[in-house]
Each structure stands twice: as structure tokens, then as C-alpha cells.
Amino acid sequence: MNRPETPSGLIPIPDVQSSRDERHIAIDRVGIRGLRYPLSFQDGDDVHATVATCAVYVELPEEQKGTHMSRLVALLEDRAAAGVPFSVDEMRGFVDDLVARLGAPGCYVELAFPCFIRKLAPVSGVASLLDYDVRLSAELSRGQFASTIAVSVPVTSLCPCSKEISDYGAHNQRSLVTISVRPREPMRVGELVRVAEDEASCELYGLLKRADEKYVTERAYDNPRFVEDLVRGVAARLANDPRIAGYAVEAENFESIHNHSAYARIARGL
After folding, report:
1. C-alpha–C-alpha distance, residues 78 and 267, integer Å
2. Mean pLDDT throughout 79-90?
3. What is the pLDDT of residues 172-209, one digit of tens each?
4. 98 with 109: CB under 8 angstroms?
5. E-strand stretches of 6-102
6. CA 118/CA 159 separation, integer angstroms
């Protein structure tokens, strides 16, 4: 088969995406979603290697036919090649690069990934990793930037009613507390994890010795929490933090004596 004398890279190729669309309907978000990509996430001094599920969108003006979606992936590739980790602080820079590269009036980015934090057991001090689901989102629209940090924190909750009415023991269960905040200034994900764990009956650990198991069992018994207590305790602490412009807190108790969950939510300014 004969090859063309002129390399294909030098042959003019039509830029169809940049052509005009005569329907004159702007698109709020267009881009890619469901892209799994390895990245580094920096939270304070800690850097975590993880794999994120990414959604990257731009606003498309009414006169433009399409966006250059390959450039969305190229931006992730360039950051990885440069060794620049993602962080809460870096989200503004990322969206600025995105709108500049695509010539877009605005954009929306969401990164969802597991973050593994090393914890020490409360008595033995044995170390282990515990995973937390994190979601970072950032939006630039009409010149206004907004970002949201969300983290889901597994904890233990022990029922106050069960403790009060039982001659011995009390039912307890694993719970999931999800905190979402819109910060006025950068915050660490680890700070939000700490808030959720402090307001629970007891926090969870990846590895426990017998002395640790005794400790967490007794701590939960001494700190009973309804699902209502979980969300109110977290909400009170978030409301008193001047760095937070808005928040939402959800708690789901995966009941150990029912085949359903207990759930509560508080949202203010989010």
C-alpha cells in the first residue's frame, strides 16, 4: 500500500468542533464523565496516591458547534507529567487552566476518589489504613468561582434508647456520616473527618487488638448517639467555623435490629 508523500500531520484537517451552530442554543455543561484516572491528592502535608473518577465539563457558547474533549484529558495528562498533586487549594488553578485551554466561558469539575488515612489503634498503637470517600468539585461560571468538599466517614453509633431500656447491653451499628462544605478558604479533608469521628459514639479502625476492641466497645457504650445526634453535633461545629460558607451533613445508621436504615440530614447555605 502506497503511503502519501505528505505526512498526515501536515495535511490540513477541518476543526469541526469550532464551526458555527445555527440553532443558537448555549449548552450549560458538555464534556466527559466516568473517566477513571490515577492522581495524587495532597491534604496538608500528606500526599495520597489514589484513583479518581472524573467529570470535567465546560460551558459551550450558542454559536459553537462542539468542544474539544481530548483537551480535557490532555489537561489531566499534563498535570500528571508535571507531578502536580490535586488539592483543595489547587482546584481554582485547575479550572482556570481548563477554561483557558478550551476558550470556554465557564466549567465544572468533579473528582471522586478513596482516600486512605493511616490511623493508630487507641490502646495498642498498632497502625492500619482506613478508607474514606472524598469528592472535590469546583465551578467557574460568569466569573464566579465556587468549590465544595465532601467526605463520607464510617463510624459507630450506639442507640441511647436501647441503652436506657435494657437491663444489659445496647444495640449498635456502623453508620456513615457524609459532610459537604463550601469553604471560604482552603480546608483539609482530614479536619472534616475528625469532626465526624468526634461526634460519633466511636470512630472505626482498620486493625484492633483485644485491648483496643475493649476500648472501642466501652467508648461507644459511654457515648450513645441517635442519628439525630450525629447530624446535630456535626452541624453545630460546622456552623461555628468561620471558614465555612455553607454545609450539609447526612447520617445513615445501618440498623442492627431492623432491615432498614435510620437517616437524617441538615443543610444550611448549600
Report:
1. 37
2. 89
3. 999 999 999 999 988 999 999 999 999 999 999 999 99
4. yes
5. 27-43, 46-60
6. 28
Q: What is the pLDDT of residue 7?
A: 54
- What angle do helix axes 69-82 and 91-102 make, rounded to 10 degrees? 140
Q: Could you give the CA distance from residue 155 to residue 162 in angstroms, rounded to a whole number? A: 18
User: In a 3-state reduction of DSSP, which class is residue 232?
Assistant: helix
Q: Please give the DSSP secondary-structure letter assigned to residue 45.
A: T
- Cβ atoms of residues 230 and 251 within 8 Å: yes
| Cell triple for 125 | 498503637
Residue in the block written with cell 495520597:
48
* 165 SS3 class: helix
CA distance 263 to 7: 62
**CA distance linking residue 199 with residue 223, whole number of Å:** 9
Q: For residue 151, what is the enclosing H or E element? A: strand 144-158
The domains located in the chain, with CATH, are 18-268 (3.10.270.10)
pLDDT (mean) for 221-243: 97
Owner of C-alpha cell 489547587: 90
- For residue 68, the tally of other CB atoms under 10 A from its CB is 15
